[in-house]
Amino acid sequence: MIMPLTTTRISPDWPCQVKTPGSYDWERSATRWLRELVPARYAGYPALIRHPVLLARHAQIQVQHEIRVARTALQTARADLPRLGLHEAAIEHTIKLYAAEVLQLQHIARSVRAVTEALAERGTAGR
Fold it and tell me: What is the model's pLDDT at position 59?
């Protein structure tokens, strides 16, 4: 079977683990990637398995929550960590870690949004 070439433009935030929308098996690769972003117990729920766009929605919520947690950790680190008996070098390292995590999570959030939009377009195109 010859598959037609797709010329879909994808976002620079498109995750490298997910195939291009419209290509063979792209939805499966999207689902696999999204399942890595949610707690394992959510990935087994039948509604999330049958409807990848629901899984994507939950992944968006999950990542936004993680961003809030990382920001809170970053904002409170300088006040809270000395009370734990940590040396200044460890505190500075931890602050840099939290800052990097916020940036990484923001990138993941943009990637999840791009995948969600592609899954939603696929769903409305099939109607």
Answer: 97
